[in-house]
Amino acid sequence: MLDFTYHIPTKVVFGRNSLNALASLIREAGATHVLVHFGGQSAVKSGLIDKVKAQLEEAGVRYTLLGGVAPNPKVSLAREGVALCKREGVDFILAVGGGSVIDSAKCIALGAKMEEDVWNIFERKVRPSEALPIGSVLTIAAAGSEMAGGLVISNDELGLKRDYGTPALRPVFCIENPELTYTVSKWQTACGTVDILMHTFERYFTPTEDVDFTDELCEGLCRSVIKAGSIAYENPTDYEARATLMWASSLSQNDLMGMGRRADWATHQLEHDLSGMYDNVSHGAGLAVIFPAWCRYVMKHNIARFCRFAEKVWGISGEGLTQQQHAEKGVEAAQAYFVSLGMPKDLKAFGVDPDRLPEMAEKCSFNGQRTLGGLHTLNTEDMLHIYRLAYGD
Amino acid sequence: MLDFTYHIPTKVVFGRNSLNALASLIREAGATHVLVHFGGQSAVKSGLIDKVKAQLEEAGVRYTLLGGVAPNPKVSLAREGVALCKREGVDFILAVGGGSVIDSAKCIALGAKMEEDVWNIFERKVRPSEALPIGSVLTIAAAGSEMAGGLVISNDELGLKRDYGTPALRPVFCIENPELTYTVSKWQTACGTVDILMHTFERYFTPTEDVDFTDELCEGLCRSVIKAGSIAYENPTDYEARATLMWASSLSQNDLMGMGRRADWATHQLEHDLSGMYDNVSHGAGLAVIFPAWCRYVMKHNIARFCRFAEKVWGISGEGLTQQQHAEKGVEAAQAYFVSLGMPKDLKAFGVDPDRLPEMAEKCSFNGQRTLGGLHTLNTEDMLHIYRLAYGD
Q1: What residue numbers bound the domain in which B227 lies?
Q2: What stretch of H or E contains B111?
Q3: Which of A13, A106, A300, B30 lies deepest, with the highest CB count within 10 Å?
Q4: Residues B297 and B352 in one domain
Q5: Among B158, B180, B202, where does a domain finish?
Q6: Is residue A6 within 8 angstroms of chain B, CB to CB?
Q7: Considering its fold, how many domains does chain B have in total?
Q8: CA distance A80 to chain B (A)
Q9: Do B213 and A219 touch (CB under 8 A)?
Q10: How far is B215 from chain A, CA to nearest CA, in Å?
C-alpha cells in the first residue's frame, strides 16, 4: 500500500427530501451572492430551478442565473460565467445538474479568482489552488464531480478536452435526491453507469500490489452498480437502483476507491480526445468503446489482474481456462454489459473517420510530449493501436 | 435506502512518513497551545512522544503533556484534563494512542467548553454540540474513534460505561502510520480486529431492506480484515496487514459502512456494561463473547440476513442446509475465527459471577428505561437471556 492523504470534506445530504436542506447549507457556507449554474431548459420546465430559487430566497441571499451548459462543457461559456462573477461580486457557485454543469461551475470558480484567461490553467501555464466555493444539486449520476476535486473542460476553438484538479475545487456540499434522476433518459442512464464503472475500473487496474482492501471495495461497488444500472435502464423510477447509482457515482470518484495505490487513467484520457474531436460522442459511450480495446492491448502486462477482474467483478470462474482465456472472458463480459445498455461496440458507430485516428493519438499524447497509463505506459503509437482496435478493424 | 447525511471532514495522512506531517497539520488547525494526551509509558519509551514534541516545536506552539489513559478510559482522568485545559488556555487536543486515548481526549474536549461537570453529558442532562478541536496520532487499529464523532467513557465510582456523539467531536486530522502498530501485542491485535469487525457487523445487521451497495462495502471490508487480522496476529510486522487493519478501523466506524440504513448496536451496548462492571474485560474480547450469543438469540427474526452473512462474509455455501443450519454455520465461523485469535469463548473465562448477570442487564437497560437493537428490539429480560447464553450455561 502506498502512502496517501484522504480528505473529503464535502457534505452529502442524500434522499427524497434533501433539497429542503439547501437554504441551511447556503447559510452555513456564508454565501451572499450565488451564481446558479445549470444546463438546458429541462431544469426550468421541471420546476427544479423554481425550488432552488425558493430555497435561496429562504436563505436570504442574492442570486444570478446562468444556464446553457451542454455535455462536454465549453470554456467559452465558463468565460462568460467568470466575467459575470467578477462583475456582480458572486461569492458562491451552485451547480444544478450533472457532471458537465459541475465541471463548468468549477472552471468558473477558478477563473473568478484569476487575472488571466482561465484556459491558461489547462495549458499548464498556471496552477492555481484558489477557487470560489461550490455546491451542487445533482441531477445525473455519472461523473462523480460532486465530491471530487477535478474537472474536465473543452476548448471548442482548439478541439481540445483537458482536465485539472486541486483540493479547493472539492464542493462544500452536494444535495443528492435519486428522484431527480427518474427523468434521465435510457441513453444517459447507460452512459452514467459506464462512467461510474470506469472511474472504478481505472483505479482497479493498478500496478500497485497488495491492496486487497481497496480491491474489495472496488469490486463491491462495481457489482452493485452493474445490477443497479440494468434495473434503472429498464425501470427509470426504481428508487433503490437510482439511489445506488447516485451514491456510487460520488464514491467512485471521491478518491476512496483508489486509496493506497496508483491508478491507470488511460481509458479516460483516450476518450477525452475522442469526444474532444467528435462532439457527438457522449463521454460514457466513448469509454464503453475504448475500454475493451485498452484491455485487449495491455492485458498481457498483468494478466493476473485481468483474471481477478473476470472472477470478482463478472463472476466468471477460471476453471478449465488459460489465464489468457479467463482474462478475455472478463473483457467480453464488460463489453456485453455495455452493449446490453445500448452502448455502441466500436468507433465506426460514431461515424469516426479512420484517417483521423493518427491526429487523435497525436492530440492525446500532446504531440508526443506525454505518455499515459499506470498499469502499462502508452506512447503515441500505443494510443493509435488502441484507437484502431476500438475502431473495429 | 433511508435518507442520510454524510460528512466526514477528518483529514487522514496515512503511511510510513505520516508523522512528519504533524507540524503542518497543527499549523493548519490554528492551534496555539496543545494538550498532548497519551496512555502508558510505552509511548514515551518508544520515542514517539519525543517525535511528537519535535513536531510541535517545529510548528511553534506551546504544549502540555497528560498521560495515564488506561483501557476503558475513566472520566476521573478526563476531569483532570478539563481542569488543565481551562487553567492553561489549551485550544487543541492531540491524542497519541488508540481509541481509549482518543475517547478520553474527546471527553476533555467537551468538558473544556462546559461550566458543569462533564459526566452530566453521559447522564443526558446536557447535550453539548461544542468541543475543542482534536487531532490524533493513531497507535492501535481498533476503535475507529479517529474519524468518528462519538466516544465511550467509564465512570469508575458508578461502575458505568456510557457513550455520546456529536459532529463537533470528529477529529480534524488523523496520522496513521501502520509501523506504529508493530509493537501492539497479539492480544491487543486480536481485540482490535474483533472491534473493527463488530463495528461493521453491527451496521450490517440492519432491519433496512435493499441497501445492497452498503452490504457489498461491509462484506468486502470484513473479508479483508479477517485475512489481515490473522496475518498480523502471526506476523506483527507485516506492513500490508497492519495497513489494512488501520485503514479499515477508520472506515469501519466513520459512518461509511452504515449509510442509508439503521444499525443494531446491541452487542456494543451489552459489552459496555460487561466491561463497565468487570475491568479485566477488554472491549474486543467482550464483543467476541457477546456477539455469537446475540446472534443465536435474535437470528430467527431475520434468518435470511444471517444466511447472507454466512455466505458472503465467511464463504459458507447454503447448499444442502436449512436456513437455520446455514445461519448457525456463519455464527460458528465467526466464533471460531475469534477463538483462533486467542479470544475467549464465554463469560466464565473472564471470571464473571453468574449471579451478577441480572444486575448487568439492569444497568444495560438503564433499569428498564431503554431497549436496545435495530434488527430486533431487546428488553431487560432479552438482555439477561443473551448474557446467560454468553456465560456458557
Answers
A1: 183-391
A2: helix B99-111
A3: A106
A4: yes
A5: B180
A6: yes
A7: 2
A8: 33
A9: no
A10: 8
CATH number at residue B38: 3.40.50.1970
Do residues B170 and B293 share a domain? no
- Per the domain annotation, does A1 fall within a domain? no
Give the relative orientation of helices B283-298 and B266-277 as an angle to the nearest 10 degrees: 130
Q: Are residues B273 and B302 in the same domain?
A: yes
What are the chain B neighbours of A212 within 8 Å (beta carbons)? 224, 227-228, 240, 244
pLDDT band (50, 70, 90) for residue B71 = confident
A/B interface, count of CB pairs below 8 Å: 115
- Identify whether residues A230 and A170 lie together within a single domain: no
d(CA B186, CA B197): 17
C-alpha to C-alpha distance for A219 and A216, rounded to whole angstroms: 5
The verdict on A345 and A380 lying in the same domain is yes
Edge-to-edge strands, sheet with A134-138: A62-66, A33-38, A92-97, A134-138, A173-176, A4-14, B4-14, B173-176, B134-138, B92-97, B33-38, B62-66
Residue B147 contacts residue B3 (beta carbons within 8 Å): no
Q: Chain A neighbours among B 189-228 (CB < 8 Å)?
A: 210-213, 216-217, 219-221, 223-225, 227-228
User: At which residue does the C-alpha cell 497507535 appear?
Assistant: B139
Distance CA(B158)–CA(B149), nearest Å, equals 25
CATH number of domain containing A270: 1.20.1090.10
Report yes or no on B66 lying in a domain.
Answer: yes
Residues in chain A with CB shorter than 8 Å from the CB of B17 are 3
Find where cell 437502483 sits.
Answer: A241
ipTM of the complex in this document: 0.94
Closest approach of chain A CAs to the CA of B175, in angstroms? 9
Residue B69 and residue B100 in contact, taking contact as beta carbons nearer than 8 Å: yes
pLDDT digits (tens, 9 = 90+) for A23-62: 999 999 999 999 999 998 889 999 999 999 999 999 999 9
- Give the whole-angstrom CA distance, residue A363 versus residue A118: 20
Q: Using the beta-carbon criterion (under 8 Å), do A216 and B221 form an inter-chain contact?
A: yes
A245 touches chain B (CB under 8 A): no
Q: What percentage of residues in chain B have a pLDDT greater than 70?
A: 100
A312 and A222 part of one domain: yes
CA distance A149 to chain B (A): 14
pLDDT in tens, A355-383: 999 999 999 999 999 999 999 999 999 99
- Asked whether residue B6 is assigned to any structural domain, the reply reads no
Q: Are B190 and B124 contained in the same domain?
A: no
Closest partner residue to A224 (CB to CB) among B9, B216, B244 is B216
Q: Residue B36 CA to chain centroid, in angstroms? A: 21
Same-domain pairing of B157 and B206: no
Residues 30-89 of A with CB under 8 A from B: none
